[in-house]
Amino acid sequence: MNEVPQTSQSVFTPASGEGEQQEAPVLKIEGLRKEFAKRSLADLLAKRDGVRTLALDDVSLSIAPREALALVGESGSGKTTLARSLVRLVDPDAGSIEFHGSDILKCSRGDLSSIRRRIQLIYQDPYSSLNSAIKIGDAIIEPALVHHLVDKAGAASRLEELLGHVGLGPTLARRYPRALSGGQRQRVAIARALAAEPEILIADEAVSALDVSVQAQVIRLFARLRAELGLTLIFVSHQLATVAQLCERVAIMYRGQLVELGPTAEVFARPRHGYTAALIGAHPGGRRLRARMNGAAAPSPAPSLQKPGCPFQHRCAFAAEICAHETPPPVLIAPGHVARCHVLPHDLDLAASAGVRGRDTPA
Amino acid sequence: MSEMPHMQTETTSTDLPTATGEAPILAVEGLRVEFSSDQGVVRAATNVRFSVPHGRTLGIVGESGCGKSVTLRALCGLVPEPGRIVAGTVEVEGVRYHSGKELASLRGEKLSMIFQDPASSLNPVHTIGAQVSEVLRVKLGHSRRVARAEAIDLLGHVGIPEPARRMAAYPHELSGGMRQRVMIAMAIACRPRVLLADEPTTALDVTTQEQILKLLLRLQDESGMAIVLVTHDLGVIEEFCDEVAVMYAGYVVERGSIEELVSSPKHPYTRGLMAAMPQIDAKSLPEVIVGQPPDLATLLPGCPYAPRCPQVREECPQVDMEAMTVTRCACPFVGPSGEEAAILGVASREDEKAGL
Questions:
Q1: pLDDT in tens, B113-137
Q2: Which among B141, B207, B310, B344 would be 20 to 30 A from A326, CA to CA?
């Protein structure tokens, strides 16, 4: 958009000088941009442009092998658009996504098919993501057959193995999705993704629709699979607590921008962006910390494209004058911790008071 | 409800005392809701008993299929066919009601309900102004002009910016949070004494969720209405409710003030739920409750939680759930301090290992 991209590419790439992440990233996202235009019939007739929304605004991010990264943000923040871009279910307007060094956005159809096998997506609603006319077993093994990972003879034993991975009994294979509970269906969806032998598993709100008790089971399942199979996990969620124990790194998105990125514990304890602080404050269960979001009734202004300044300025409790004029550049706080904020990265006391730790002291 | 004196964990007088001792606006006693089907009778709510005083909020929590929503719907006569209230009374401001029909007649003026999904509870082909005014015209007999003016006031009151202009908006033009505000405006239009809220924020973002819950608390402060909030999110309960009822398999298994439940949960199910809650500042993964809630059509006698309970004993299948009048906890094996149960829990787990 403006002069920010040059800095963002270098700063949002982890491992700037840190020893533990020397390994080449599996995924390297640079300057990703996607704009959606919604044009109604009335707009069409009047030859007007419709409403344009910037779903991804210069997003740069690297993901290391076997790490678990959380993408957090409210609806409309672009987290799902980002997740879908990774398998090109959404075609970004600009930027690049390198998977083991080759650009997903420029590859051939044949390469894309192989990349899509290695990056699997799991969706929020296990009721609509499974075909109700296909038996569980057939649904699970299908990706393996399509990609010639097993032959007909080996299918049965592979199926049993996959069911075992997700903790389902082999008898379920002959049943239809309608006979299963929500938690079981989500396990089936996970087994189906695993059948393709992926390197990266993207879970798009995969536990949001489940009951707390079932949610806990599925979160534990993800943690176990990651350890056993060496998977890279990208966990998309709008709930901070769900990702807190599962993911070591968290990326917070707001209005298409990656506003903060860093180690989960560090980001939650000392958020360096007004939006992260507001999310933590709004998280139920934090009785003491009252919301730091300005005015409960304040309407979120409609997203517009060329407005100057920080996209969160109107709702931010920490907004300063500069926030209205200049888009905050990414600020490197510690190795691997970056925030696009004018205020919190520079005021340590304020940042400490905004974190989870601040809860015990009455606000 | 008085002829079952045996096996009561804690007995109470027939009058329902609330934790605070105030007269309740809403008192539910021995409520039982059944659905008859080809497979037999499904008891969706059994012997449900709770009360909510003036200006207080009761949270009902539990997994899906535990009878939370059915209980709430029963209170305003909205149990879907073939379900019906077969026993129990609902007392609203001191007047007792026995049937769904009687309760339905209170809807709007005494009792009001808001639902999880505001998108499907608003009519997509009418403007929100028309829908809010309709409530005022039908229930309060206002003229069109008066109803319109009051509808604008109401929309402003629930935090909708530029209410006069938004009167002409259709539901699809509003965000989820704004739609829920419209639903709340309609629900409070006739100043009900009790607001029943069924997962009102589950479909919303955390930041919007907080705004909606705060709005409900503000409206409660102004009018003193009692709120019953059904949710499966213990975080919401902890932050916004005064008292909690934990439901399992149609029974209220634990009841108490939020402080009591958070500091010393007694029933093993309550403890399981709390351990399953992901915590933003916890160090380990959430704990799992093994198994699933039971199928209510084939419920075995005894405590319904026994098959999943880590502290299960031989006597659990003999517990007479129906005879219990739960004032705090429906598990007869949990001592007053809760410590005893912890010891029992360890013992029974070891027994289990030895036995299997």
A1: 998 887 788 999 999 999 999 999 9
A2: B207
**How many A/B residue pairs have CB atoms within 8 Å?**
126
Please give, rounded to a whole number of angstroms, the shortest distance from the CA of B261 to a CA of chain A.
13
CA atoms in the 13 A half-sphere facing the CB of B158:
24
What whole-number distance in Å separates Cα of residue A54 and Cα of residue A33?
Answer: 8
Is the per-residue pLDDT at A1 higher than 60?
A: no
Asked whether A68 and A206 are in contact (CB, 8 A), the reply is no
- Name the H helices within A166-244: 182-195, 212-229, 240-244
The DSSP code for B327 is: S
A242-246, B164-168, B215-219, B248-252: range with lowest mean pLDDT? A242-246
Cα B209–chain centre separation = 17
The number of residues making up chain A comes to 363
SS3 A42: helix
Strand intervals (E) in chain B? 24-37, 40-53, 57-61, 83-92, 95-97, 111-114, 194-198, 226-231, 243-248, 251-257
Tokens of A60: 């740069």
| Amino acid letter, A81 | T
Cα–Cα distance between A60 and A8 in angstroms, integer?
Answer: 7
Pick A245's closest partner by Cβ from B232, B282, B292.
B282
Q: Do B279 and A244 touch (CB under 8 A)?
A: yes
Interface test with chain A among B166, B182, B206, B218, by most A beta carbons within 10 Å: B206
In a mutational test of the A interface, the residue from B170, B261, B280 whose CB has the highest number of chain A CBs within 10 Å is B280
Find the closest chain A residue to B279 by CA distance. A241
Instruction: Report the C-alpha gap between A328 and A257 in whole angstroms.
Output: 11
Assign B86 to helix, strand or coil: strand
Q: What is the pTM of this model?
A: 0.79
Paired tokens of A171? 């008898």
Q: CA angle A19-A21-A25, nearest 5°?
A: 150
Predicted complex ipTM: 0.72
Share of chain B above pLDDT 90, in %: 42
User: Residue B232, SS3?
Assistant: coil
Instruction: Judge: B278–A219 Cβ closer than 8 Å, yes or no.
Output: yes
The answer to whether B107 and B113 have CB atoms below 8 angstroms apart is yes
Could A296 and B214 be called an inter-chain contact, meaning their C-beta atoms sit closer than 8 Å?
yes
Neighbour tally for A290: CB within 10 Å: 13
> Are B238 and A287 in contact (CB < 8 Å)?
yes
Q: Pairing between strand B111-114 and B194-198?
A: parallel
Q: Are A166 and A176 in contact (CB under 8 A)?
A: no
Mark yes or no for CB contact A223/B285 under 8 Å: yes
Nearest to B280 among A181, A220, A240 (CB): A240
Tell me which residue of A240, A259, A247 sits closest to A345, measured CA to CA: A259
With beta carbons under 8 A apart, name residues in chain A contacting B286: 212, 215-216, 219-220, 245
B159 contact A CB<8A: yes
Q: What is the pLDDT of residue B7?
A: 39
Chain B residue with Cα closest to A207: B278
User: Tens digits of per-residue pLDDT, A248-286?
Assistant: 999 999 989 999 999 998 898 888 998 988 888 777 754
Pairwise CB contact (< 8 Å): B238 & A246: no
Cβ-based contacts of B283 with chain A (< 8 Å):
245
